[in-house]
Amino acid sequence: MNDCTLRYTRCETSSFLYLKNKETGHAYTSAAPNIPMNDTDLPSTKQCAYCHKQKPLSEFRKRTGKRSKGQSRRGACRECRKQRETLNIKPTAKEQSNPNRRVRGLEQRKKHPHSQGTKLNPEDPTQLNPSAKGMILMRGHSDKGHRWHQEIDLPLAITLVREHAAIVVNRRTIKRLYSNKDFRAYILARDNYICYFCGAFGDTIDHLLPRAKGGHTTPDNCVCACTLCNQTKADRSVEDFMGRM
After folding, report:
1. Residues 149 and 195 in one domain
2. Is the same domain home to 30 and 53?
3. Range of the domain at 201
4. What 8-state DSSP symbol labels residue 61?
5. What do you get for the CA distance between the two ends of the chain, in Å?
6. Nearest by Cα to 27 from 44, 8, 3
7. Where does a domain end: 116, 133, 168?
8. Based on the domain organization, do 194 and 237 belong to the same domain?
9. How many CB atoms are closer than 10 A to CB 138?
10. Residues 225, 202: contact at Cβ < 8 Å?
């Protein structure tokens, strides 16, 4: 093994053969390993990483940063770059390690553009998919604007979405729509400050199905009530209370 083999790496393209110094990174011709190559001596073509065609260097963008030595260029030619920008495709780590995988993925996205992901209906609780523990993540904000989150079971999450107290963010998450203060203001404004039971002025909120019997604080289960009706009804059902009025 001679000194040239130890110091240089053999680099070959489809139309050019040159040596590269392992220490400095400079390129040299195989005939004169002591004379650095000029930019005009470097290969004038490059193989595209996507279409695998040999194209001139002018079709490729220059690299920037640590890898921007000499005429180092990026992997995609101008035509492939425009196609990927049109489809808004970003290469993944697996695609970067396997050029053939990139080409197949690009072709599949062209044939099946709808397979890139379907939008969820925020008001459809049947789309929820609980975790292994059967829980759904619920997030929201407090009266002061602080964000919070907690885990709830799937039946409660379905009830909150169906009764318009929350919306579906993704298959594992729902978002509570109102803080406590905003919810009270919403119910009173919706019912025009009129008591649901007697028709008088009301400034409190009552649950149609009491929380003691499984009711929840949702727009569909809460109504405006006056103080007298709210205290008199207590934990009775609506039918029982209205029958005694």
Report:
1. no
2. no
3. 181-244
4. E
5. 106
6. 8
7. 116
8. yes
9. 20
10. yes
Name the amino acid, one letter, at 2. N
H helices within the chain, ranges in order?
3-7, 78-87, 93-97, 99-111, 154-162, 180-190, 227-233, 238-244
pLDDT in tens, 13-66: 444 445 555 455 555 554 445 555 555 555 678 888 888 888 888 888 777 766
Convert the pLDDT of each residue in 123-164 to its tens digit.
Answer: 999 999 999 999 999 999 999 999 999 999 999 999 999 999
pLDDT tens-digit readout, 78-88 = 888 888 777 76
Q: How many domains does the chain have?
A: 4
Q: Radius of gyration over alpha carbons of the chain, in Å?
A: 34
CA 159 to centroid of chain Cα atoms: 26
Tokens matching residue 114: 């709808």
Does one domain contain both 186 and 208? Answer: yes
Q: How many CB atoms lie within 10 A of CB 222?
A: 24
Between the alpha carbon of residue 214 and those of residues 14, 22, 140, 188, 207, the distances in Å are: 75, 74, 22, 23, 10
pTM of the model: 0.52
What are the angstrom distances between the C-alpha of 149 and each of 99, 155, 173, 177, 206?
A: 42, 17, 10, 13, 26
Whichever domain contains 190, its CATH number is: 1.10.30.50
Beta strands in the chain (DSSP E): 8-12, 17-21, 27-29, 45-47, 54-56, 60-62, 73-77, 135-141, 147-153, 166-170, 173-176, 204-207, 222-225
